């Protein structure tokens, strides 16, 4: 069975057979591909005078065009989505970063296993540093403040891809011209 001109199919091999081309966004001359141009136009690129582009499905998955309940409009030829995303503060789930402290005078200058405590230190000019007993055992503690203490996170993008299996999309350069109903 001959394919329709412009038909796109997914194949598990690494070449485009005769009469087919990879869907890799390449420009084709209109003069040698006028029937295919009459179907695709410049939806996927090209200047529309001498060239037009094939769809570029490298690293993309095809989805149905149009809109439906709860969906935004998906126009033919538009590219959507991103491979990586950096979350903004508004996109993060609500959460708190607690910092515990105690109003009892500190008993140690070693923070391991302890919380911040009340402490005062007097330093004299030229004197050696005096270690502050600014920590107390974690047993008696209370939240210090409801607001965040410091910025957390690195702000780097993270992978946003669904689990995928790369294969080759190919498009028919020759075939039966599809008739409308």
UniProtKB/TrEMBL annotation:
Domain Phage tail collar: 6-61
The organism's place on the tree of life at top rank: Bacteria
Annotated region described as Disordered, given as residue ranges: 93-119
Transmembrane segments: none
Compositional bias (Polar residues): 101-110
Designated name of the protein: Microcystin-dependent protein
């Amino acid at each position: 069975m001959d394919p329709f001109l412009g038909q796109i199919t997914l194949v598990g091999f690494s070449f485009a057979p005769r009469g087919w081309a990879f869907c890799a966004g390449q420009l084709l001359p209109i003069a040698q591909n006028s029937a295919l141009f009459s179907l695709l136009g410049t939806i996927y690129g090209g200047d529309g005078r001498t060239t037009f582009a094939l769809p570029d499905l490298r690293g993309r998955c095809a989805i149905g065009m149009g809109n439906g309940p709860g969906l935004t409009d998906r126009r033919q030829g538009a590219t959507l989505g991103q491979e990586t995303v950096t979350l903004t503060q508004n996109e993060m789930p609500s959460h708190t970063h607690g910092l515990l402290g105690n109003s009892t005078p500190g008993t140690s200058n070693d923070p391991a296993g302890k919380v911040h405590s009340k402490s005062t230190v007097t330093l004299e000019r030229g004197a050696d540093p005096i270690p502050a007993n600014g920590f107390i055992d974690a047993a008696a503690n209370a939240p210090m403040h409801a607001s965040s203490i410091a910025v957390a996170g690195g702000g780097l993008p993270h992978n946003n891809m669904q689990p995928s299996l790369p294969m080759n999309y190919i498009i028919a350069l020759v075939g039966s011209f599809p008739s409308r109903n």
